[in-house]
Design brief:
Blueprint (H helix, E strand, L loop, with lengths): L1 E3 L2 E3 L23 E6 L1 H4 L9 H16 L3 E6 L2 H24 L15 H21 L5 E6 L1 H5 L1 H16 L3 E6 L13 E2 L3 E2 L4 H11 L4 E6 L19 E2 L20 H13 L3 E6 L9 H6 L6 E3 L9 H17 L2 H17 L1 H18 L4 H7 L3 H17 L7 E8 L2 E9 L2 E6 L5 H12 L2 E6 L4 H15 L8 E3 L6 H4 L8 E5 L2 H10 L13 E5 L5 H13 L8 E7 L6 H12 L3 E4 L1 H5 L19 E7 L2 H11 L4 E5 L3 H10 L4 E4 L18 E3 L7 E3 L5 E8 L19 E2 L9
Length: about 750
C-alpha cells in the first residue's frame, strides 16, 4: 500500500503478481493484451477544433485488425474537448448569426467574436459525439466498442477499482473494445507538478497517467503511446543535435532534456516518460511513437506489434554492447580516421589480416564446424547454402591471396587526383577520390564475405557495418575478431563493426542518417527485400543472377562442352553460374547438340525445356515454368533461338543484366553480341564464372552490381569511392568574372600527378 495526497491506495491490484515486461522489440509480436493511448495531438486536427477523421479511421482499422487476430485491445483516447469545441463553436456562431441578422443585418456577421470556451463544457458536449464516431468506425469491422469514463477518485475507492476491473475484463471476454477517457466534464483543473510523483506513485491527471495506470491494473502486455513526435529524443525535437532514442532504460532520465508539451493535451513528453517507466515497473512494455505522420500513421500500431523499429521502446534489459546506432557512429568515426592514414598503413592492416587468416586457420575452421553442425541439425539450410557456409583450408588460402592483392593495389585509391582544371589565374580545381562513408553489408551463409568486404572497406577508407546470417554466427565472430586485431595495429578498431543485436534487416535499412550505402550479399529474395525496405539509402547489388550462354552455329566443338560444364557445374550455387542455355536452331539433332546433352546428363544436371525447344521434341524434359528462373543448383533451362539477334532479344527480355556469354568462332557475330547485350559482364568464349572480383584482379569484391549508376559488374575498391572537389584560390570572388570584371575564365586542363604503380 502506498499513499498519494494522504489517501492510501494500491498501485496494483491485489491479485496481480509482478509481471515481466518484454526485453526486446522482437518479442512484442507475442503481446496478447494491448492498450493504445491516443494523445490529443493525434486525435485532433491542426486547428485544435474538430477531429482528424482520416487519421482516426486508420487507427481504428489497425486496432480492429489486431482485435480480429485474437488480441485484446483497449483504447485510451483524448479528443472529447476538441470535438466539443467544434460543436459549441458551431452552435455559438449559429446563435449569434441569427441574433445579429435580426438586429443588425448581414453586414455585421463578419465582426462576430467567439467567446473563450470552458474545457469542461466542451468535454461534456463532445463525449457523446466522440463515442458515436468510434462506434460507427468499429462497426465497419464488425467490432463492438464500449465507453468508460473515469476520474482519479475512481482509482482511490477500492470498490470502484474492483468494479472497473471487472467491467473491463467482462468487455474483453465478450470481444468488445473498451474506449476509456478521463471524465473531463467533472475533473478539477490540473494542479502543477502533482501529475506524477516519481515512478512509485501515480495519479490519474491526464491520459498518459490514465493509460499507464490502466495498463498495470489490467496486467497489459504492451502500452502504445501515440503522440505528435517520433518518440523520445535526447534533447527537444527540432534542436540541432536531437537524436531519437531507440531504446530507453530506467535510469537514463539524466541523459534527456525535455522541452515544452505538444500544442494540445495536458501532458508533455516528461509526463509520458514517467508514466511509461511506471508501467514498465508494473510489468508492461511501452512504446512511444508518432501517430500523426502521414507516411507511417497508417501502419504504426501494427508495425510496433510486429517488432519493427518504430518510436522509442522502453526496456528493463540493457544489452551488454552498443546499439546499432552507436555502432554506425563508431564506424563513421573509425572510417574517417582510417581514411586519414597513409596508404601504406591501410595496406599494412590488410596484409596483417591476410596473415591472420592462415595463422589462425584451425580456430576459424573449428568455429565454422560448429555453424555447419548446427545448420545440419536444424535442417533449415538447403544444400547450396550449406556449401556457401562451409570454409576450408583452400578457401582461406584463396582469401589470403585475394587480400594481399587488395593491399598491393590500394596504395593510391583514396585521395587520387582524377581531374585538374585551371579555372583562372591562381585558381585551380581538383577532383579527388574519397570514401563513400559508412557501408552496410548484409550477407547470408557466406562467412568468407566478411574478410573480403572488410579488406575492401579498409583499402577505400570506409566505415563498415556487417550484418551476417545467424547460421554463420560462430564463423563471423572469429573473423570479425581477427579483423579488429588487424585494425588495432593503427588504432582504428572501430572502423569495422559486426551487428550482433537482434536487429531486423528492415530496421537497419531505415538508418538513412547513419548509413550511406547498402550492399546485400545473398539470395535474390534477400536483395529484393532490402531494395524494398531501403528508404533513402542507395542499394548496390543485383536481385538475380540469370546468366545465359549462347551457342552459335560457328561454335567450336572443343570449347562448347568445357565452357558450359564450367559455367553450370563448377559452382552451381554462385550468382554467376549458367541458368539458361541458348542454342541456335541449326545445331539441333547434330553431334554437337548430343555432346552437350550427354555432358549435362553425366554431370546430373536437370534440364528444363523452353517453349520453343519443347516444340521441337516428341518427348521433352519438363517444360520450364518461367524463363526468368535462377536455379542455384544443378538445373538449367535450354531454349532454341534462330539467330544471334534473337539471342540478344531473349537475354534482354528474360535476363537480369548480370553475365552473358557467346560461344562462336565468328568474330563478327561475337562483336555484335558483345556490343549489343546490355549486361554488366559480356564474354566471348569464356565461362560465366569469370565474372568475379578476384578473377578480374580486383583482389575481391563486395558484390556484383547490375545497376547503371556509380558501379557495375564486380565491385572492388573503385566502386567504394566517390569524389569531392578541391578549389584553391587567392582572394577570388565571382563578381571579378562579370562582364565588367577584371578576370576571365580559363578552364585549362592540367596534367595529373604521377600515379604510384608499385
Amino acid at each position: 500500500i502506498r499513499c498519494w495526497s494522504n489517501i492510501p491506495f494500491l498501485t496494483v491490484p491485489l491479485s496481480r503478481a509482478h509481471g515481466k515486461s518484454f526485453a526486446h522489440r522482437s518479442e512484442l509480436k507475442h503481446a496478447k493484451r494491448i492498450v493504445v493511448k491516443l494523445g490529443s495531438a493525434v486525435v485532433t486536427r491542426g486547428d485544435e477544433c474538430g477531429l482528424a477523421l482520416g487519421r482516426l479511421a486508420s487507427i481504428v482499422e489497425q486496432v480492429s485488425m489486431l482485435q480480429n487476430q485474437g488480441r485484446e485491445m483497449m483504447i485510451v483516447t483524448s479528443g472529447a474537448v476538441a470535438f466539443g469545441k467544434q460543436r459549441l463553436r458551431h452552435e455559438i456562431l449559429l446563435s449569434q448569426s441569427v441574433r445579429q441578422a435580426l438586429h443588425s443585418g448581414q453586414s455585421q456577421l463578419k465582426d462576430m467574436a467567439i467567446p473563450v470556451l470552458e474545457a469542461r463544457a466542451c468535454a461534456a458536449a463532445g463525449q457523446s459525439g466522440l463515442m458515436a464516431l468510434y462506434e460507427a468506425m468499429f462497426t465497419q469491422y464488425s467490432i463492438c466498442a464500449a465507453q468508460i469514463l473515469v476520474t482519479n477518485l475512481d482509482f482511490h475507492d477500492e470498490q470502484k477499482r474492483r468494479n472497473l476491473n471487472g467491467t473491463l475484463h467482462e468487455l474483453l471476454r465478450m470481444n468488445i473494445v473498451p474506449i476509456i477517457n478521463t471524465n473531463d466534464a467533472v475533473v478539477p483543473p490540473p494542479e502543477p507538478n502533482s501529475d506524477l510523483q516519481g515512478v512509485n506513485v501515480i495519479s490519474v491527471k491526464d491520459n498518459d497517467s490514465l493509460a499507464a495506470r490502466l495498463a498495470v491494473e489490467m496486467k497489459t502486455d504492451l502500452l502504445i503511446v501515440l503522440s505528435d513526435v517520433e518518440g523520445l529524443f535526447d534533447s527537444p525535437p527540432g534542436s540541432d543535435d536531437a537524436k531519437l532514442i531507440d531504446i530507453f532504460y530506467p535510469g537514463d532520465q539524466q541523459s534527456v532534456t525535455f522541452g515544452t508539451k505538444s500544442r494540445v493535451g495536458m501532458g508533455g513528453m516528461e509526463a509520458k516518460v514517467k508514466a511509461a517507466l511506471w508501467a514498465l515497473q508494473g510489468g508492461t512494455s511501452v512504446v512511444i511513437a508518432n501517430g500523426t505522420h502521414p507516411k507511417i500513421s497508417g501502419h504504426v500500431i501494427t508495425d510496433i506489434v510486429e517488432g519493427k523499429k518504430v518510436g522509442t521502446f522502453f526496456s528493463e534489459v540493457k544489452p551488454a554492447g552498443p546499439t546499432v546506432e552507436q555502432q554506425a557512429e563508431m564506424a563513421r568515426g573509425g572510417g574517417r580516421t582510417l581514411a586519414a592514414l597513409q596508404p601504406e598503413q591501410r595496406a599494412e592492416i590488410i596484409y596483417r589480416l591476410a596473415d591472420l587468416l592462415t595463422d589462425q586457420r584451425e580456430e576459424i575452421l573449428l568455429a565454422n564446424k560448429k555453424d555447419l553442425e548446427e545448420a545440419e541439425n536444424k535442417g533449415r539450410l538447403a544444400l547450396p547454402l550449406l556449401k556457401r557456409l562451409s570454409l576450408s583450408t583452400s578457401k582461406l588460402n584463396s582469401l589470403a591471396i585475394g587480400l594481399r592483392q587488395i593491399a598491393a593495389s590500394s596504395q593510391d585509391s583514396v585521395g587520387r587526383v582524377i581531374r585538374r582544371t585551371r579555372i583562372a589565374k591562381a585558381l585551380d580545381l581538383e577532383q579527388v577520390t574519397v570514401p563513400i562513408g559508412v557501408l552496410l553489408v548484409i550477407f547470408e551463409s557466406r562467412p568468407d564475405c566478411l574478410p573480403q568486404v572488410s579488406a575492401l572497406a579498409i583499402a577505400s577508407g570506409n566505415g563498415l557495418l556487417l550484418k551476417g546470417g545467424k547460421e554463420a554466427a560462430h564463423s563471423n565472430q572469429i573473423l570479425h575478431h581477427l579483423t579488429q586485431e588487424a585494425l588495432s595495429i593503427h588504432g582504428v578498431k572501430d572502423a569495422v563493426q559486426l551487428v550482433n543485436t537482434r536487429e531486423e534487416v528492415e530496421d537497419l535499412c531505415r538508418l538513412d542518417k547513419l548509413i550511406d550505402l547498402i550492399i546485400p550479399r545473398g539470395s535474390s529474395q534477400l536483395v529484393r527485400n532490402i531494395q524494398k525496405a531501403a528508404k533513402g539509402i542507395p542499394v548496390m547489388g543485383h536481385s538475380e543472377g540469370i546468366c545465359h550462354v549462347y551457342v552459335d552455329t560457328d561454335a567450336s566443338v572443343e570449347k562448347v562442352t568445357r565452357i558450359i560444364r564450367d559455367s553450370k557445374c563448377e559452382y552451381p550455387a554462385a550468382c554467376n553460374a549458367l541458368e539458361t542455355l541458348l542454342i541456335h536452331r541449326d545445331l539441333l539433332r547434330t553431334p554437337l547438340f548430343d555432346q552437350i546433352i550427354d555432358m549435362l546428363r553425366v554431370e546430373q544436371v536437370k534440364i528444363h525445356a523452353g517453349p520453343k525447344f519443347a516444340s521441337y521434341l516428341t518427348f521433352s524434359p519438363s517444360e520450364v515454368k518461367s524463363l526468368r528462373t535462377e536455379y542455384g543448383d544443378l538445373e538449367c533451362c535450354i531454349e532454341v533461338v534462330d539467330s544471334v539477334q534473337e539471342a540478344v532479344e531473349h537475354i534482354h527480355k528474360y535476363g537480369s543484366s548480370h553475365t552473358d556469354v557467346i560461344i562462336t568462332e565468328n568474330e563478327h557475330t561475337a562483336e555484335f553480341f558483345l556490343q549489343h547485350v546490355d549486361s554488366a559482364c559480356v564474354f566471348w568464349n569464356a565461362s560465366t564464372r569469370f565474372s568475379d572480383g578476384y578473377r578480374f584482379g580486383l583482389g575481391a569484391e563486395v558484390g556484383i552490381s547490375t545497376s547503371r549508376i556509380h558501379a557495375r559488374g564486380p565491385v572492388g575498391i573503385e566502386g567504394l569511392l566517390t569524389t569531392k572537389w578541391l578549389l584553391r584560390g587567392e582572394n577570388h570572388v565571382v563578381s571579378d568574372f562579370s562582364e565588367h570584371g577584371s578576370m576571365k575564365y580559363l578552364h585549362e586542363s592540367l596534367p595529373l600527378p604521377q600515379r604510384n604503380t608499385n
